[in-house]
Amino acid sequence: MRRSSEQTKATILAAARERFAVDGYERATIRSIAADAAIDPSMVMRYFGNKEKLFAAAAEFDLQLPRLAGLDRDDVGARLVEHFLDRWEGDEALMVLLRSAVTNAEAAHRMRAIFAEQLRPVTDEFLGERDDGGQRAALAASQILGLALARYVLRFDPVVAMSRAELVAWVGPTVQRYLAGRPEASV
Amino acid sequence: MRRSSEQTKATILAAARERFAVDGYERATIRSIAADAAIDPSMVMRYFGNKEKLFAAAAEFDLQLPRLAGLDRDDVGARLVEHFLDRWEGDEALMVLLRSAVTNAEAAHRMRAIFAEQLRPVTDEFLGERDDGGQRAALAASQILGLALARYVLRFDPVVAMSRAELVAWVGPTVQRYLAGRPEASV
DNA sequence: GTCTATAATTCGATAGAC
DNA sequence: GTCTATCGAATTATAGAC
Questions:
Q1: Each residue's pLDDT tens digit, B114-153
Q2: Are residues A105 and A15 in the same domain?
Q3: Which region among A110-119, B146-155, B175-184 has the lowest average model confidence (pLDDT)?
Q4: Are the beta carbons of A112 and B155 closer than 8 angstroms?
Q5: What is the reported pTM?
Q6: Does nucleic acid strand D have an atom less than 7 angstroms from the CB of A50?
Q7: How many domains is chain A partitioned into structurally?
Q8: Domain for residue B63, yes or no?
Q9: B54 and B99 share a domain?
Q10: Hey, which residues 45-104 in chain A have their CB within 8 Å of chain B?
Q11: Which of A27, A157, A176 sits opposite B103 (nearest CB)?
Q12: Touching check for A171 and chain B: CB below 8 Å?
């Protein structure tokens, strides 16, 4: 079947996202992506140049974080956890990055860029001017990424079994404390 | 140079651990491991059969968790974080698993086994008989793994820059709450 | 826009000489 | 115990016909 240039490119990109999300950068092959897209492997090269550029296109995405300023101040932790659960389950974008960033330097760089350019501005606006803003945002990111790792990648039974509400009830306060609490405060 | 069987095997295993820790299962090659060990690639096959068995040998390890029963009850979170920071920085064993478990099914299975067979018994003894023991242990694992991911793999600047004491002060209470607190409790 | 053919590497694995 | 030689498969990437 003859398709338009745009159609073809979009089909390849969708197949690439799926493969990169499941297999990570090294195991995902141009051949397997082409097969999923029901197209010849050379077409992938034609439209994206090489594997690296294809990954760059597939890994491009927007966290779509809400502004925290408008939220109840005691509620930002839970809201953030809910938002990230939605983003993890909504599409493969975050999984593409996580699965590749562990062994691929370029993907890890992307992760850091997204942290700096998309998460930091949002938490900074909430936190105001303070010198531990980077630490607090990074700690929140560590828990959110760790939760995704345990639930979607490593598939630890108890975390897989927990409901969205349970996860928010447990992890929300952690993120809340990282963003708004004192280090020593707990329980 | 002619070496003994034991020597050779140990040298190969050490090189394998390093490579798997840095590159993960797919990128680490038998050839590169052999080169690091200054030995012929065929020797690796001779001693370990195939790549899968070599990984199994390299990924075998003991968390060496302390018994929590003997500790101050309000202190287990901080002690666990300290212990894991030591284990992450002491040798490559945990990194071997983390770098591979994200894209390799066998490594992920190993991770779950270590969680179930080494972490669970220790937290269960501390928690006593209760039905949310698995959830609590898994939540603690999610934060500890997320911290390692941010600090050692993704290298988020703020987390890399934080001292051991700062990390314990921030993350200790989180683990403490997962093991001993109530879900809603925070700040 | 699509595909065939193929170059150039690289990998895991095996056979066998010394 | 160590190495050479090599197979067979898979990969990215390119050139060019239709």
A1: 999 999 999 999 999 899 999 999 999 999 999 999 999 9
A2: no
A3: B175-184
A4: yes
A5: 0.96
A6: yes
A7: 2
A8: no
A9: no
A10: 77, 98-99, 101-103
A11: A27
A12: yes
